[in-house]
Q: What sequence folds into this?
């Protein structure tokens, strides 16, 4: 319960340091995020349950192990979560993809859902929820609230950066959801940006600043 998995692998930390720099171009930012997501996919799937299958090698019959259950679901929170998706799919090409559209109400700062589409049989699937920045935690909590109405087998939350406020918000409401992150930053500024952070992840991925 209340698991936070800080991925400290040197390759992950090195690429994250490059991405944080304000001089990095949109195309390099996107490429680095793609590379980072493939590396993070290994950590995120590390404890996926396996089951034994009987297979035929060219020489004999043997028992091997394969990931158990129906295909897992990558669920990016639009739009920045999309930046994580292709790298994850490189590693798990058979995964299904569910989309969650949320925007922040400018008055209340609460997350409002505008799109939600998941595959069938969610109760048999493990969901990997993707959002590069876990800041206030409002979007993450709203996304997990909604996902839980479909009773998936498990939910993991994956971000690049978070901060104590984001972790407290998610684990305050959903202590059963592990958070995978490449960094835990100092906190939030007055505009709810993570500091030192990397700026607006969506703008940096899509070049919309
Ligand atoms: N979303 C971002 O893109 N960046 C932050 O720092 C916080 C939320």
A:
């Amino acid at each position: 319960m209340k698991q936070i998995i800080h991925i400290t692998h040197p390759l992950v930390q090195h690429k994250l340091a490059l991405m944080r720099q304000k001089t990095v171009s949109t195309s390099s930012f996107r490429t680095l995020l793609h590379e980072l997501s493939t590396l993070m996919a290994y950590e995120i799937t590390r404890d996926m349950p396996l089951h034994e299958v009987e297979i035929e090698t060219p020489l004999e019959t043997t028992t091997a192990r394969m990931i158990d259950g129906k295909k897992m679901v990558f669920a990016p929170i639009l739009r920045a979560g999309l930046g994580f998706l292709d790298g994850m799919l490189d590693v798990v090409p058979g995964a299904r993809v569910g989309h969650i559209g949320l925007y922040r109400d400018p008055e209340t700062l609460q997350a409002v859902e505008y799109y939600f589409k998941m595959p069938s049989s969610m109760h048999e699937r493990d969901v990997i929820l993707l959002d590069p920045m876990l800041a206030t935690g409002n979007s993450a909590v709203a996304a997990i609230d909604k996902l839980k109405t479909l009773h998936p087998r498990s939910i993991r939350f994956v971000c690049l950066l978070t901060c104590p406020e984001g972790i407290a918000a998610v684990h305050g409401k959903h202590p059963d959801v592990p958070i995978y992150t490449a960094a835990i930053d100092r906190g939030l500024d007055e505009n709810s940006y993570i500091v030192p952070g990397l700026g607006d992840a969506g703008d940096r991925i899509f070049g919309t600043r």
Notes: Residues 26-44 form the longest helix (19 residues). Residues 80, 133, 135, 193-194, 197, 200-202 surround uracil (CB under 6 Å). The longest strand covers residues 50-56.
